[in-house]
Design a protein that fits this description.
Length: about 325
């Protein structure tokens, strides 16, 4: 049966495309531990053809985040995938202690051992590269965004026609029926950080009428990084190097002050997991909009009048099923050590 399918596929494609079933994906992230773990999830999947990684220096510093991304790509034998990023300041900066976590990842021995090719001397800006990629792609591209949506919004504001080349956008951001995670003066606490960093971009994102799949705090609150899960992961790490690497990155997230505000969640990892396997969540079609001015800058709400564009929102997830899926995903990851 499989042989017949492959033969059929080759005849349809003229044999020109070696892996026609892989989904082309651009990953836009902001360099915190969770973001790099999400990159690992995407590379661990056999279904994905990763086209490029964009780094926003929001919840990280640019240099270590670019370096860690390149190391992870090298770990998965994907050195050819470009990593783009440049200095960029959001309206509200992330706390420096959180941003400094981005220095931990490229210092991990498993990543430090990677030999990297020299960085390209000249690179286009993230937005220029993104526009070009969307423009020239033969099929619509999926985007997974685990940081502020600034690059995506800029690209589409400059060239709105590129929207038709986007298959779907999975974004970790926002908080709808639950409190936010921003503690900042002038702010009322209702926003989530990715939405707060560049509130104008967040507001614009919801107005663009994209095929948007939102993973807000409503869903991610169910998946704090737990010692129970890390123990299960550690058990399989002896045999599986990708699990070992993830365990080391997650270990770096549990040393924060144990209060609700500082708990580290699987925000971006859940988003990457739902992108790969959407059935793990309950999705609701909701009309959502965002505010750009204090005291509710970056606040996302369900539009009571239903006038804002409707999007898919992950409102509930089965955390047991998610944990089991992650362990399985990391066991079958293809790597050449
Ligand atoms: O608001 C969640 C986003 C996710 O994309 N980030 C972390 C994830 O990468 C910001 C954030 C909220 N609380 C944090 C964060 C914390 N305690 N430490 C680091 N980053
Ligand atoms: Ca992030």
């Amino acid at each position: 049966m499989r042989k017949i399918l492959v033969a059929l596929l080759l005849s349809v494609t003229g044999g020109a495309i070696a892996t026609p079933l892989k989904k082309p994906v651009i990953f836009s992230q902001d360099g915190n531990s969770d973001d790099l773990l999400a990159l690992i999830f995407i590379l661990a999947s056999h279904k994905i053809d990763l086209q490029g990684v964009l780094v926003t220096p929001a919840d990280c510093y640019l240099e270590p985040a670019m370096e860690a991304s390149r190391q992870v790509l090298s770990f998965f034998d994907h050195k050819h995938v470009p990593v783009l990023g440049e200095p960029l300041a959001g309206e509200h900066a992330f706390p420096r202690e959180w941003r400094a976590m981005s220095y931990l990842i490229p210092a991990l021995p498993m990543l430090l051992r990677q030999t990297l090719p020299p960085r390209p001397a000249i690179q286009p800006s993230s937005v220029t590269w993104l526009k070009e990629k969307l423009h020239t792609s033969k099929q619509p591209i999926s985007l997974v965004v685990t940081g502020p949506p600034t690059h995506l919004v800029q690209a589409l504001t400059q060239e709105p026609a590129l929207k038709k080349n986007i298959k779907e956008v999975f974004w970790m951001g926002g908080a709808l029926r639950v409190p936010g995670n921003v503690l900042d003066h002038e702010h009322n606490g209702s926003a989530e950080w990715n939405a707060y960093w560049d509130p104008s971009a967040t507001q614009a994102l919801f107005e663009l009428e994209l095929p948007l799949w939102l993973v807000p705090l409503d869903a991610t609150n169910s998946v704090p990084v737990s010692m129970d899960f890390l123990k299960r992961l550690a058990q399989q790490s002896v045999q599986y190097p990708v699990s070992d690497l993830c365990g080391q990155i997650w270990a770096g997230t549990v040393g924060t002050i144990p209060s609700a505000h500082y708990t580290y969640f699987m925000w971006d990892t859940l988003t990457a997991g739902l992108f790969l396997h959407p059935e793990l969540a309950t999705w609701e079609m909701l009309s959502v909009k965002a505010f750009s001015k204090q005291p509710q800058a970056g606040t996302t709400v369900i539009d009571p009048e239903g006038k804002a564009p409707k999007i898919n929102v992950a409102t509930r997830i089965n955390s047991d099923a998610f944990h089991t899926y992650v362990l399985e995903l990391l066991r079958q990851a293809p790597i050449g050590l």
